[in-house]
Amino acid sequence: MSVLVLVLAGPLQAWGLAARWAHRPTEPQPTKSGVIGLLGAACGLDRADTAGLARLAALTYAVRTDQPGHRLRDFHTTHSRTGKAMPLSNRFYLADAVFTAALAGPTPVMNRLHQALRSPVHPLFLGRRSCPPARPVAHSLHHDTDDPVTVLEHLVSWQAAGWFQQSHPGHRMTIHHDTHPTDPAARLANDHPLDFTPGRRRHAPRATATRALAAPQPADRDRDGGPDFFDALDDLT
Predict the structure, then answer these.
(1) Which domains does the chain have, with CATH numbers?
(2) Do residues 175 and 63 touch, judged by C-beta distance below 8 A?
(3) Cβ neighbours of residue 16 under 8 Å, at least 6 residues apart?
(4) pTM
(5) Of 10, 18, 54, 128, which is the most buried if we count CB atoms within 10 A?
(6) Is-contact 211 63, C-beta < 8 A?
(7) 231: Cα within 13 Å, side-chain hemisphere
(8) Low complexity compositional bias: what residue ranges (predicted)?
């Protein structure tokens, strides 16, 4: 077994659970469905391939909030190709957020996913097509472990932007992770993907729990996952 670590950072992210017509909210952290969709895009998985999706959805999932960002509302207007006005909508995003996600599964599967993220079949995005990542998504691969929570807690350091670490030295990261339904702390999230076929998407509930971590040290930042191209803006402030 191995654990694959991803860094999800960008100017905008959007991780929806329950979009309703003109109201499209976002969760405060990446959903399992959204991250599995990102992996599927990297692998070139067909949207109607429910068997392939099931293999990805079977991976154990955890995500850490390194930089929570802030919620942004877009009052969205659009027109059809003929110029006809389409319904107005409110779309919500997370701005300037950074998350570290980890997935555990069989080593051959994780090796293939790691390679796919480094050379994806389809473009990768953070929940919506308008949200490209600001850093390479693939961070690291940890062998001989099946616990993504332990990896996020002890083996992967704080991935927040430098300016955030300097201005929030006491920030306490949280980890949202899969757990057993009998866990007294379990909460249900309806983001276990069953089918991505357009027009008939289906999800199932999964049991999740939350763990708060001690405040990290700013000097412990690990940038092996690649450069944050937006860090250059720090020099202009």
Answers:
(1) 2-236 (3.30.70.2660)
(2) yes
(3) 24, 25, 26, 27, 31, 34, 127
(4) 0.85
(5) 10
(6) no
(7) 16
(8) 206-218
